[in-house]
Amino acid sequence: MDSLQLFATAAPLGCLFALIGVGFQLVYATLGALNFAQGDFAMLGGFLAVTAVQVLQVPLGVTVLLTGAAMAIVGGLFSLGVYRPLRHRPHDSLIVGMIAASIIIENVALFAWGPSPYRLAGFFGGYVLRLGQVVLPAHAVAVICVTGLIIAALFFFLEHTLLGKMLRATAQDAETARTLGIPVDRVMVGTLALSAALAGIAGVLMVPMLSLSLRVGTDVLIKGFAAAVIGGVGNLRGVILGGLFVGILDAFIAFYVSSEYVNAIVFLLVILVLFLRPQGLLGAAVQERV
Amino acid sequence: MRLRGRAASYALLGAAVLAVPLVAQSDYRLTLLNLILVYVIAALGLNVIVGWVRELSFGHAGLMGLGAYTAAWFATRAHLGLWVGAVFAVLVCMAAGFVVGLPTLRLRATYFGLATFGFNVIIVQLINNAGSLTGGPQGFKGIPGFSVDGRILSGTSFYYFALLVAAAAVALASRMQRSSFGRALLAISEGPQIAAAMGIPVARAKTTAFVISAAYAGAAGALYAGLIRYLSPDSFDVGLSVAFIVMVIIGGLGSIWGVVAGAVLVTLLPEVLRWIRDYYLLVYGVGLLLVLIFLPDGLASLPGRIRRWHGVTGDAVMRQHQ
User: Fold this and answer.
1) Predicted TM-score (pTM) of this structure
2) Nearest CA to CA, how far is B200 from chain A (Å)?
């Protein structure tokens, strides 16, 4: 397999890591805490999609939308049950609360869907595109397009709508935002709902590409961490590029070294980046913050 | 009157701790008791960085694993015995703590958590893949155990030995808490800028705290190797690191006896709740969340709360009788 083919295979996965990383970033910027349940949001989204497609016979396109909505509700519940009671506590209590939520989600998923892995057919069935030497499933192209659309919509939302501006203001300085009359608490609930929806959609799109099991939560969490750090924590555009980069790195390590080592090498890179360039690899190039 | 009551209850508790292996009745329960002591020591170490400095470390199980494998390697492959292995375990863990802590503890709090999380993932993967050194996924077999006078410590004798180590760990921690170093850590957790303005070398103090925390993990790892005498990479994954954090937080961040109680509770809970079987982790997650929300200062605050509640109702009863 040549590098071009590897790139083509890795790009859609990178897109999904970018979506999860963006949700991660939004929550980090507004709440100031790493959301340890973000990977489990993606996993739960994937499982919901399995039920929608296999049991309820909903088409995949509609499932993406429905799962996004359902996960937004889960994100809202998460903020009411975990974030709101713990928001005035020290930082570490909130993080451990998120870990507790992640344990709860994983075990609810275990009861609802069992331990065996699932896989779904992608968009356009098994249709495959050929571009010269490169072979690409149509689903992968669809994933890239859907991700592009979502990210474009997200940027439009953040920069051109009142709600998006409220979110950015809260992220910049919650106290000042509060004195300006922005309903900060509600904005934070909304941010968690938004990021859960993004992760959930990524989860749905992932099921046709990876097999979905309970392990996916932690795996995806690690990739989301990596995307956020490599792109520069607080830097939304950087995180998108960071997600793509992690996806490609993942494919190359799995192909040239071993898939066993992917998480260790990704984390080694994260620690190196933290050590040498704590603002992220792309931190200096793109200064804008969410 | 009240003081005498308290002294009596401490004496009773002490006697119970000393007598418990004699009534344990089965090897399984003895091993569980011994494991509790090992985890108490590890949790006391984590408390230094999580409870006092208030930086979350997700790498404590990885450090403990590093210590356990180091001790086992020196004991078997280098033929130096487990005692020497334990010394190396502590030293190697301190070195690892220094290397991980030095660059990351200067950065924002979150980065340290990430780096230690990564450290744990890397350690487990290294243990899995360095088969010639560690036995790989099949595990490290044939660890000799701690021997005194040619007799290997196990069961009850291991319990009293581990109890001694745990008591030393508690004593060391409470000395540290009251020392100027302990107060410096407290100041850092309250506000690093203010601490720095008061002349505390913040980065150096944090790194020292993490190295001490790693030393505890190394000692706990060596004890674990001597107790179970078989090591598997899965025993030291991030899940155990999270469990250690839960012990410290549930126990009441910073309080030494709270951490001890947290370690005992978190280790015993799966045994006590065995009857709920598959639902255990779900109950554990929900319980953890409820404790976080309703007992913000952890188990350490429980006696005070009960006394206050008791006192209030007691007064009310008195008033009714007047």
Assistant:
1) 0.88
2) 22
